[in-house]
Amino acid sequence: MRLVLLGVPGAGKGTQGRRLVERFGIPQIATGEILREAVKNGTPLGRAAKERMDAGLLVPDEVVIGIVEERLKAPDCARGFILDGFPRTTAQAEALDATLARAGTPLDRVLNLVAATEQVVLRLATRLECPVCHRTFNPTGAAAKDGVHCDAHPETTLIHRVDDDVAKIRKRIEVFHAETAPLADYYRRDGRLRDVEGLGDVVTVTARVMDAVAELAERMNGAGA
Ligand code: AMP
Predict the structure, then answer these.
(1) How far is the CA of 221 from the centre of ligand 1 (A)?
(2) CATH classification of 2-112+183-222, choosing from 3.40.50.300, 1.20.1050.10, 2.30.30.100, 3.40.50.1370?
(3) Is 13 considered catalytic here?
(4) 59 lines ligand 1 (CB under 6 A)
(5) Is 208 a catalytic residue?
(6) Buried b (16+ CB within 10 A) or exposed e, 151-181
(7) If residue 109 lies in a helix (H) or strand (E), which one and from where to where?
(8) 3-state secondary structure of 194
(9) Which residues have CB under 8 Å from 51's CB, separation 6+?
(10) Is the pTM of this model over 0.85?
(11) pLDDT digit string (tens) for 36-84?
(12) Cα separation of 64 and 195, whole Å?
């Protein structure tokens, strides 16, 4: 099952991607997480990306395309993958299609998580992230049990992402509308897109996501995967 999760920052791509991982056992590839890890480790990639990430701007296409192409070669992607936060530009979407076409493994579906701007601003401004497993918690919705530590890593204090302050959130949303939102039409044109309403609690949205991939799941089971 080869999926892309599309949606404005804060629409729930990370959270819903994790549900899909749990259900189907295929990896979630989040370019934002890969880049943040590189920044934390001070690698050349991280040093090159840090300034743009901190400003809420996109990292150059060739950098992220290279990361994803490498990652997709890993054996754990053989049964499928969930791309989260990639592609974000038309050039990235075209590069992905070309790579997958060469491998004879085209994308099955693009899930477009739809959420209103004011709702995502609030979600992002108040969310906390586990630096170990990258799960996010939110006091206004799915809060951590003690509000401070990760439920799965009780020793780990949740952190606020540096790009989750209101000015940078608004910048990231603006960049999304300018660069990434047009991808919905790119995928809608040939029938690969499914809109999924991102409003509501996590369980409700997960049910919609599972519905949107139901026949792909059947096909996967039928193939004995
Ligand atoms: P995210 O965790 O998806 O919100 O991504 C955090 C930041 O990483 C973004 O604001 C960008 O600076 C960078 N980034 C992540 N994915 C991409 C991508 N596909 N293209 C360009 N920049 C990206």
Answers:
(1) 33
(2) 3.40.50.300
(3) yes
(4) yes
(5) no
(6) eeeeeeebeebebbeeebbeebbebbeebbe
(7) strand 109-114
(8) strand
(9) none
(10) yes
(11) 999 999 999 999 999 999 999 999 999 999 999 999 999 999 999 999 9
(12) 25
